[in-house]
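Consider the following assembly input.
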Amino acid sequence: MNTVRISALVGAIAFLVGLAFATFSELKVFLPALLKGLVVTLQVAGLSFVLFLFCSLLAALGRTSANLALRFAAGIYVEIFRGTSLLVQLFWLFFVLPEFGVVLTPMTAAVLGMGLNFGAYGAEVVRGAILSVPRGQTEACIALNMPEWKRLFRIVLPQAFAIMVPGMTNLTIELVKATAMVSAVTLVDITSAAVKQNLIHYRTVEIFLITMLLYYCLCQVVRYGSKLLEVRVSRYRGALN
Amino acid sequence: MNWDWTFAIHTVMPRLLSGIITTIEVTILAFLLAVLLGLPLMLLRVGKNRSISVIVGEIVEFLRSTPLLVQIFFLFYLLPEVGITLPPFATGVLAIGVYYAALCSEVFRAGFEAVPRGQWEACTALNLGRYRTMRDVIIPQMLPPIVPSLGNYLIVIFKETPLLSFVAVAEMMQAAKLIGAEFYRFSEAITLTGLLFLILSLICAALVRWVEFIVNRRIYR
């Protein structure tokens, strides 16, 4: 059903783009700018996705660790980044940090802000997944005298990975959509390219519909990828089935 | 380190506090719009008419898969072109409300599908009309379990309101940006904005938890 939907979607989009090309000559003028914006969006999304995975894993391990200080630090991180808006955080990184002596390039600020913000949300998903691995698994590892790191990386995390895929997929889609905000730190992504082109050409409907379609496609690609991943990781579910 | 307490307290705070009022107004109005629009969307989605439900489903999916910011810009530039001139505040509330109506309709649908089948069958057996079935039996039972999710959306909407600063709605973030542009000092304004958001969203989260507690107590008593 999903494959059918994706192929239908791609067909529909190809058709729409072709139709638009044929109908509106303006499209030739503003499409290159949008595609240039798409490259920036993809860069930000890709890099911040890596940081997002890293932060969520680290913060989740911190929150589930036996060490009180680590637990506290991870808790503070999660509360701060979940309690304020992403836009405020991006602004803070880009405009306030230089006054404390740390100057970031727009790209670094965007990736850092998005990665840290979504990492805080992801930490809760990963923590939930780690906690839902049955306790007997950990106890069996202790009984077998397995070292702690081996227990974590070979027994607990692979099983937690299978559980966290749907939650992390939703967050990844949110992340892709949130890249629209990076124009706040002066990056020219699809959204700000669309706004600029709109101010030049005044073709609001076409420009914004194409922008939305591009985001829609990105989200569908993420959804489709996660479906494939879900099938592949289902064999790690081990004790959960 | 460049932090001026007198500037922060005498210049920044009064302006941020007047921005906070707009932020809270936007949050509440957009949340009400989302809930009031989400319920009919859900009813169309689960309705008997197949084609309407497929179309509404695709619209919801499309709204969910495109960034709110792009939708705000779209409405902001589109409405004047088709002859509707609204103040930016109203456009912002409309955009956020419609976007979250799509998300809320999914929450409503989850609640709707969680009502046991027996309830429907009992209504049929009692010969209740469709309207009475919905109003008196189904909706009262589907609402309590989804209160936490709706409450979370209230907090999420609150944290998304800074997006409206892109279309110059005078909310808290816009006030902070203006202070930054006017005095060329960003640290106080933006840091305080972040702190105010943190405090308000923690209060909001506590309130939602309290409402959830009250609702659950009334059901399971």
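The CA atoms of residues 43 and 107 of chain A lie 9 Å apart. Ask yourself how this observation constrains the way the partners meet.
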